[in-house]
Amino acid sequence: MKKNIIILTAFTELLTLQGWFVCQRFTDIFHFGSIDVVFQLGTYINAFKGKPFWLIRLFHNKLVQDPINFLRVYLQFWDVRFGINWFSLIGYFGIFAGFYYIISNKKKKMYHWFVLSMLIIFPCIEILLAPQVSLQIKSIYLWLPFTVFSLYGIYQFLSYGNFKKRVWIIVSLLIISMLWIFFLPFNISNYCVHYPIHPHVRKP
Amino acid sequence: MVALLLILPLVLFSLSSQGSERFTATSTFSQIEAKNIYLHILFYPLTYISNYLSFFSLDFLFSFGDGIGRHQVQDFGELYRWQLPFFLSGIYFLLRIKKSITKRIAFFLFFIVPIVGAVAVPSPHSLRSLPLVIPSIILISVGILFLLQHIKNYRYKLATILLITLFACFEFALYLQFYYINYPQENVPDWGGGYEQLVQATGKVKNNYKHIVIDTSLPYAPVYFHFYDSSILFVMVPPSWSEPNAWKKDTVLYIRPYFGHMKPNNLVENVYLPKIYPEVFAQLLNIKE
């Protein structure tokens, strides 16, 4: 039973690849380099006419603004709206379940820490470097690790607690995810610059 | 019974066509375009779930808010950024506790609040998620308390408290600074800024023109014109409007938002937003030139 559910989940998550493959590249909201921090600070400082210089510089400097900008871009990757479109609802649930079970594991081993750090670091490749590679390649370092991790999360979720109840939760999420993928148009326009759409792929 | 009687006018008005206008304008279901009733039935719950989940978006909660200028200070979400790690750890710690009233209340409130808000657009929405403040504060407090409990060394505990206080104070000061200094400058248009100046500028030249037309891209113009100077007579026209033949011999003043060209040939006056460094808000154009 558990095995079948995992296979079904993997299949569902595989379907989300459709979205990745009609995308040419991620939009600027994922790229730290796209933010012109000097211009941004300039617009903030404009409002301070007649105020002391130290007050302006206390709040508006690169040391403060860069981490804020980085966090803003980074949170886009963990946004529920991004997650359910790019990894499916069940996949997104699995990712968080995976995090929960790894963190709550009292006998954490080296590879647990390694996996956690990798998942936290992988989005940074896109954020900091904005590599000019196709989304197919990007999916290898973004989609694949997160999908595998979500399967781990769902496996763990099914391994503890009331099995029957948890199967129902997962099956419900699977049904919603399937319906989502098949019936709701991919809501990825906010996140990607499109390839010319292939006639067989539904328009985003 | 008395309460029912008292809310009766409200219920009756809500069921009338004027009353349901607001519902139609903000209902997420009225925005769905589906070919048949079966797709409608399918889309309703999916759209609802999508809206519901959007209230838990970390980007909404900690970084960008709902993007509506009247609801938030720029660069800030609904909660402070320093609270993010404690918010996440609060969820984790509460999930680990087996039977706890705090856990039940926090998660109950956390999951119940967006149920109503998700029916409307835009989602997520700051005002419709206001009660989320209570469960969020519970989660953040639990996160901080449990984290401090896990630090056994007194010095480390003190250092952690100091560090949290430092970040919290700095972000609060940053918020106040944005609220009192940047917000009144940057968010002038969100509060109808520029309309008063527009009415004044129009009032000065209104006698020179037989017709005054206003682009519908200035959607609140009728309200502000009636409020500041009800003697100005005007017609609202869509951006695609062209002068009717019957007006060819008349003088016409055309008012439209600023589209990037500071000094067009037929410019009568630029209307500026009331800011330290004024930006053009709207333009008065004489369409005969």
Description:
The complex is a heterodimer of chains A (204) and B (289). Chain A is mainly alpha-helical and 204 residues long. Chain A has helices at 2-15, 17-21, 37-46, 53-59, 62-77, 80-86, 89-104, 110-129, 135-141, 143-159, 163-183; strands at residues 23-26, 192-194. Chain A has a two-stranded antiparallel sheet. In chain A, α7 crosses α10 (143-159) and α10 (143-159) runs antiparallel to α11. Chain A starts with a helix and ends in a 10-residue tail after the last strand. Chain B has 289 residues and is α/β, with parallel strands linked by helices. Helices cover 51% and strands 9% of the residues of chain B. Chain B has eleven helices and five strands, in the order ααααααααααβαββββ. In chain B, α11 (221-228) links the parallel β1 (211-215) and β2 (235-237). Chain A binds chain B through residues 43-44, 46-49, 51, 55, 59, 64, 68, 71-72, 75-76, 78-81, 84, 89, 100, 103-104, 176, 179-180, 183-184, 187, and chain B through 39, 42-43, 46-47, 49-50, 53-54, 56-60, 62-64, 75, 81, 84, 92, 95-96, 173-174, 177, 181-182, 184-186, 276-277.
The string of secondary-structure elements of chain B, in order, is HHHHHHHHHHEHEEEE
Helix count of chain A equals: 11
Instruction: Work out the radius of gyration of chain B.
Output: 26 Å
**What is the arithmetic mean of pLDDT of chain A?**
84
Instruction: State the strand order across the main sheet of chain A.
Output: 1-2
Q: Which structural category fits the helices and strands of chain A?
A: mainly alpha
List keywords for this structure.
heterodimer, A: 204 residues, two-stranded antiparallel ribbon, 2 strands, 3% strand, elongated, B: 289 residues, alpha/beta, 5-stranded mixed β-sheet, 11 helices, extended
What is the gist of this entry?
The complex is a heterodimer of chains A (204) and B (289). By secondary structure, chain A is mainly α.
What's the structural blueprint in terms of helices and strands?
The complex is a heterodimer of chains A (204) and B (289).
Chain A: H1 2-15, H2 17-21, E1 23-26, H3 37-46, H4 53-59, H5 62-77, H6 80-86, H7 89-104, H8 110-129, H9 135-141, H10 143-159, H11 163-183, E2 192-194
Antiparallel strand pairs in A: 1-2
Chain B: H1 2-15, H2 17-26, H3 37-54, H4 58-64, H5 84-96, H6 101-112, H7 114-117, H8 133-150, H9 154-186, H10 195-205, E1 211-215, H11 221-228, E2 235-237, E3 252-257, E4 267-272, E5 280-286
Parallel strand pairs in B: 1-2, 1-3
Antiparallel strand pairs in B: 3-5, 4-5
Helix pairs in contact in B: 1-2, 5-8, 6-8, 10-11
